[in-house]
Design a protein that fits this description.
two-stranded antiparallel sheet; 197 residues; globular; six-stranded parallel β-sheet; alpha/beta
Length: 197
Amino acid sequence: MAAAITHLLYLHGFRSSPQSFKARRLQDWLRAHRPDVHWWCPQLPPSPRAAVALLRDGIAAWPQDASAVLGSSLGGFYATVIAEATGWPAVVINPAVDPARDLVRYVGEQTAYHDPDQHFVFRAEYIDELRALAPATITDAQRYFAVIAKGDEVLDWREMQARYAGAQLRLLDGSDHALSDFDAHLPAILRFLGLAG
């Protein structure tokens, strides 16, 4: 990695939030060990176009050579969009490869995973927004660290592995979509980002 990471962006998945246990675990680690790192984990709006606009605006002044992005599931898709636009290193955790295809069945009213009382509408036009945002290819696979669980009950690990071919890959025999054993993989993620030895 060219420079030490000073800015870190975390992107949650579909129906998730900054209350994601992975986001909280990583934020807690940074607070304890690397309080110098600027951390941002925004609540993403349901509209993919609006989500990416929010992110681009929020990171506009971040240092090009000292920033990185992480994302899980749909957040992994967004992390790839951001990494391709900025050239930043990216960690993707069970990343959505084709969310335009996979999220069609979720068009309509949804509830937030961490707060079932919170409802939002996932509109049909958001599928087209996802399609428009999808990077055609990954331009520099070595900038990516992909953590992919064969035990993912939502996404196909083979598709994820193919999409991130050439990336630094951590392919897990078990685990699950949420990566419930995140703590076991946190040291490798931190090493990739140059945040821990």
